[in-house]
Design brief:
Layout lengths: L5 H6 L1 E6 L1 H18 L5 E7 L3 H7 L7 E13 L2 E10 L9 E9 L3 H11 L5 E9 L12 E5 L5 E2 L15 E4 L3
Parallel strand pairs: 2-3, 2-5, 5-6, 6-7
Antiparallel strand pairs: 1-9, 3-4, 8-9
The structure holds 1-O-pyrophosphono-5-O-phosphono-alpha-D-ribofuranose.
1-O-pyrophosphono-5-O-phosphono-alpha-D-ribofuranose binds next to strand 4, strand 5 and helix 4.
């Protein structure tokens, strides 16, 4: 898909589902959660590119305890609109996680298959602990039994864009979460 017209680009943003102010409130809650949980421990915030890059950038600035930042890039293989659960690591973390409490910072849990694979992979590396903070949760679509330790917003089964989430790589830079529609 190529969107060359601004009018067409804007028309496809059907509605705002989560506003910038609501996201800011959510970030504060997530920051407080991490600060309370990990006071005095070595933390590594791990984010999976690309979707979680905006959430990670804002969330890490709400964290007031010492923490380090790490990125992974995984490729999920899709069957139609769902991930197949086949995940390969395109770019791995640049350090051993054995001495860290890991907090996986995710943008959205949909079927849960990508995160499940990722948690299995990271768990095998024996971190001190493993915790998941997600911005969005779409429980209606879940195919594996998986729940984040902290989920900021539960959303219905709609195609969402913005704040890191894309449609064909567009819309990641929107400052809010919107619903996408071609109609
Ligand atoms: C999205 C999102 C999650 C995953 C959720 O990533 O960032 O990692 O899908 O789907 P699931 O729960 O059904 O497995 P995507 O593969 O679209 O890549 P992106 O982060 O680069 O946009």
């Amino acid at each position: 898909m190529r969107l060359d017209s601004v009018k067409e680009y804007e028309r496809r943003i059907k509605s705002i589902i989560i506003t910038e102010d609501e996201i800011k409130d959510g970030l504060k809650r997530a920051g407080e959660y991490i600060n309370a949980l990990y006071d005095g421990n070595p933390i590594l915030l791990v984010s999976v590119l690309k979707g979680a890059f905006v959430f990670m950038a804002d969330l890490c600035r709400e964290v007031t305890v010492p923490c380090e930042i790490g990125f992974m890039c995984v490729k999920s293989y899709f069957e139609g609109t769902s991930s197949s659960g086949e995940v390969s690591v395109v770019m791995d973390l640049d350090r051993d996680v054995k001495d860290y409490h890991l907090v996986v910072v995710e943008d959205i849990i949909d079927t849960g298959r990508t995160l499940k694979k990722l948690l299995d992979m990271l768990g095998d590396r024996k971190p001190l602990s493993l915790n998941v903070v997600t911005l969005l949760d779409k429980p209606d679509r879940r195919l594996v039994d998986l729940k984040a330790d902290l989920s900021l917003f539960t959303i219905p089964d709609k195609f969402v864009i913005g704040y890191g989430l894309d449609c064909a790589e567009y819309y990641r830079n929107l400052p809010y979460i919107g619903e996408y529609s071609e109609i």
